[in-house]
Amino acid sequence: MRALTTLPLFRKSMLGLAMAGALGAAGQTQAGEVEVLHWWTSGGEAKAVGTLRDLLEAEGHEWKDFAVAGGAGDSAMTVLKSRAMSGNPPAAAQIKGPEIQEWGELGLLGNLDSVAEEGNWEELLPGVVSDMMRHDGHYVAVPVNVHRVNWLWANPEVLEDAGVEMPTTWDELFAAGEALREAGYVPLAHGGQPWQDATTFESVVLSLGGSDFYRQAFVELDEQALQSDTMIEALTTFKRLRELMDEGMPGRDWNLATSMVIEGEAAMQIMGDWAKGEFTTADMQAGEDYLCAAVPGTDEAFTFNTDSFAMFQLDDDEAREAQKTLARLILEPEFQQTFNQIKGSIPARPDLDMSEFDRCAKRSMQDFQAARDADTLVPSMAHRMAMRSDVQGAFFDIITNYFNSSDMTAEAAAQRLVKAAELAM
Ligand code: BGC
Question: Which of 422, 421, 401 is nearest to 410 (CA)?
Fold first, then answer.
């Protein structure tokens, strides 16, 4: 939600609206209805969110769908902002990471403490997840899942046809790329959209710099890290990946890039495990019809991305009841199990039986725990988990401009990152 923070103005108008009592406008929703803003519109995503709608309806409440297409939620956040500006936010919205705090500061979010207490969220959730769900000590959001971002996906038939193995280093990846090209495939499926560029870039940074460096650069916004030789090397490697992509990439949606791997047109894709939702929806089996591996050089680390729903204040009792029911259902085992198997993520609560999950999800759960123990768990910059939304927006612009520019050097891009970080201080 770049837009939110551009705006002292936005903040002012929101406070004005709140004072005018306009907040209650969300209560115009009918009793027992929850309007839910989300950006889950690809095949796998839509199927996954359908499980939540079904569970809510089974409790006698009404689900009003407010889906805004666009990977990683940039468009959804713009739409949410304008709905909030007009004093009519939805009851629930997919808001994540530090943005939960930004909305909390505006005083618009409802209090979920009673649901959290009854459901024992404090015990169930890893601290790294529950901390993000609270504003000013109170629960205002509920986590849905944990996605891992630093994954590499591949079509094994395509790899085999080109005589290459799943690459474990960048050198292997570039060498495999040449063989794949010669065999007539696109080595790496990609969609040229800022968030997809950033998704690839953050994994390269993690790979070349390690988790401490990643945190210095993307969480602490440390100037030395941002202009270091490691960052220059990461920018250079990231740009080189263009060699492996195809000319059709500008503007392509992420799920269409995944389809290229599914169809055997492309060999691999660097993408978070929501890509697994597309493989699963295409009836493909993990480890057989498609492969998952950590992005080269990131085996020991885990870039996490937790989806969550923040709840807006409502003044209608029944609507509030429906909203609380939604929050409760989200952390119950039934939803966590069914939704996450379809979505490609792992449950937000680590206590659940994973035996029905596929091997990539099992590995994700293991790696998540191992990364927590080894302190190599890092928040995704590209997926709104690491930094304020205005800084993230500036980083996206720089990363994409650099990736698409024919004359911007890695050094110049690094300097721009430093400047963007300075603005945040
Ligand atoms: C979200 C995922 C979603 C993906 C693509 C990510 O930021 O966390 O739930 O599937 O974007 O839209």
Answer: 401
